[in-house]
Design goal:
- By secondary structure, the protein is mainly α.
- The chain is 55% helix and 0% strand.
- The chain has one domain.
Length: 69
């Protein structure tokens, strides 16, 4: 459950990925964070009702975009 009582959804997770590296007081490298996210995803046991395949596909596509720059 998300803090507000609403379940975290596939779209929430994708929104998170699109902003990865921008949270906190200092900016982090989104490329390295996405690579770590993708590697760790295969070990994640609980995806709740989220679409794991769609999320990982989106993460890989976003990583490809970022690494082409």
């Amino acid at each position: 459950m998300h803090r507000s009582g609403i379940s975290w959804t596939t779209n929430h997770e994708i929104d998170f990925l699109m902003k990865i590296g921008t949270f906190g007081q200092t900016q982090k490298d989104p490329v390295s964070l996405l690579k770590s996210y993708i590697r760790a995803a295969k070990y994640r046991k609980n995806w709740n009702h989220m679409d794991k395949k769609r999320i990982i596909k989106t993460a890989k596509a976003y990583l490809a975009i970022l690494t082409k720059k």
